[in-house]
Amino acid sequence: MLIRTPQPASVPAALAAPAAGAAAPWRDQFIQQLSQMSMPLCAVSTVHPPLQKSALPTPRVRNCVCRGLWASLPNNARNPAPRNPAIYESDLPVFTTDVRMEKAWEISASGGPIEAVWWAADAGTQWRVRGRAWLLGPEAETPAGEEARTAIQKHMRWIPGSAAGSTGRTPTAATTSPLEASTGWSWSREITAHFGNLSPGMRGSFRNPAPGQPRPARGKEGNSSPGEGLGDPVDNDHLDDPEARANFRVCVIVPEEVDQCDLSKGDDPRRWLYTYVGEGDEDKHGDEEDRAAKVKDADEIINGWAKKEIWP
To answer: What range(s) does the Pyridoxamine 5'-phosphate oxidase Alr4036 family FMN-binding domain occupy (predicted)?
Structure first.
């Protein structure tokens, strides 16, 4: 087994291993292949907890649009929202959702286990990302959002050479940290940037009547709450629309396993399983015995990920 944990020479010594360290070994190829998709749709599976003790949990799946990686929002010239300074990056896929949808409740009620699957047709590759999901909304910078902030921040790292890298500070999940005061990076600004990255019509969908509720006969009033307006867009001057923003959520997936299956060569299919095991004593991931087994079984360890090639 080969263990490799490269450290960029350009990063100051104090930041040699910030947060989750260097990028995941699958990250660059994952981003490249998603960028080639006309629409980066992924099938997102959650657990629907039983409402009765005698019942079993059931799976739920739906298609969602991947909105990039957390803290690495793709550039969009039509996005009017202010952007955070480019000081962070991560390996955490993101999609957006309405807090009134069942998947949002399922994520909260089940503890967040999730699996997302992409089929990158041009590359002939299937990506399966398994891990835990966290929802970020209006409460992100309050005590109620601390657990999510802490879980996500562990996997955010400095971009080498960025302005924050020169401060020598350690990333923190605190909402009023010296880092945010000195760099201007904030959780709420990142969430607003995701909202602004949507089309006006898509932003307006968060003002629609609650998903899953009965739809009245044509011609009758369909809105059940003040501020709801079916089909009403939210333009660039109203990114703080109170009704839409109350329902808007950014879902961040913290991966624990990434399964890459390359079927581009029919006579030689390849598949690799990446399992997050953490870096160093302070970042060990999961049960110690289970982690040791995964490390021992791996072909190599790269930046906290155990990589093993398996049969498709």
So the answer is: 24-136
Residue range 41-53, pLDDT digits in tens: 999 999 999 988 8
User: What pTM was computed for the model?
Assistant: 0.85
Nearest residue to 72 via CA among 166, 159, 12: 159
Q: How many CB atoms neighbour CB 1 within 10 A? A: 12
Element (H, E) at 63: strand 58-65
Is residue 74 predicted with pLDDT exceeding 90? no
The C-alpha atoms of residue 156 and residue 69 are separated, in whole angstroms, by 10
Domain membership flag for residue 31: yes
Q: Give the span between the Cα atoms of 206 and 211, in whole angstroms.
A: 10
Enumerate helices (H) and strands (E) in the chain, giving the number of each.
8, 12
Domains in the chain, number = 1
How far apart (Å, rounded) are the C-alpha atoms in residues 149 and 252?
10
Q: Is the pLDDT of residue 5 over 80?
A: no
Which residue's entry shows tokens 């109203």?
A: 238
pLDDT bucket at 147, cuts 50 / 70 / 90: very high
Could you tell me if residue 306 is inside a domain?
A: no
**Domain encompassing residue 24:** 15-214+223-275
